[in-house]
Write a structure and sequence with these properties.
16% strand
Amino acid sequence: MTTRRFYKPLKEFITSPTDFKLVYSTGGEDLLSSGVKRICVLDSSFNPPHLGHYALIKESLAQKSQIEKDENRSILLLLSVKNADKVNPQPESFENRLEMMYLMANDLAKTFHTHHIGIGLTNHAKFVDKSVSILNYLHSNGVDKNKIKLTFLVGFDTLTRILNPNYYLPDKLSTTLEEFMKQTDLFCLTRNDEHVSHKEQNNYVSDIRNGKHEHIPTHWSDNIVLLDNAGDEIGLISSSAIRASISANSDLWHDKVIPEVRDFIIKEKLYLPKEKI
């Protein structure tokens, strides 16, 4: 890599006892400047970041629903490096992802110039734990946790996974996530999914509200906004498909990421089979 801006903070985080670290904020400004009252959190592997991620942020910021009504908002791109020292003893792949997140953050800052864009690291896997770690960070920086709201930006598959009771056994979902749902909103875009129709996805929140999901409290529907994706092409974009296209030496992935990320992938020869490097 030509730059190693994230090598030190990444290594420090992996070896530290902390569970959340803010490693970058556009313009050098903190996420909490200008009286920010809501932080929209996009949690992903960013492997690589793509226009599907971009669409989630764009649609969330454009939405004037009961959730996204605060004018003073920040965006947090969140990367989980849980067990990074065991799963990936060489953190360069995380470093590359952070570099691509950095490129996306700066591009987002130019597009949504009134919003502060940050990059954070966490070592948690579950959203409920990620939320607590971010709120604790805010509290440690003098912010009243009850005066700021988190909104997680998710795809439909992630939404249903968050609300899947099997992930919280032997505890009850309604007990485990009650505090989370008090302090956190969920903003979701539907996806093109061969297993779940658009109609089923669009009816998911109303089904919760009408008590058709017995394990999910009906009042949680007030904290969920679900919209149709920005278009069929956006709904089909996935990081795995992009990696497969790159590995196959195809250029069909070029328009699935912002130009800066495309150029970085090509320059650093990311996702190519070793024999092609």
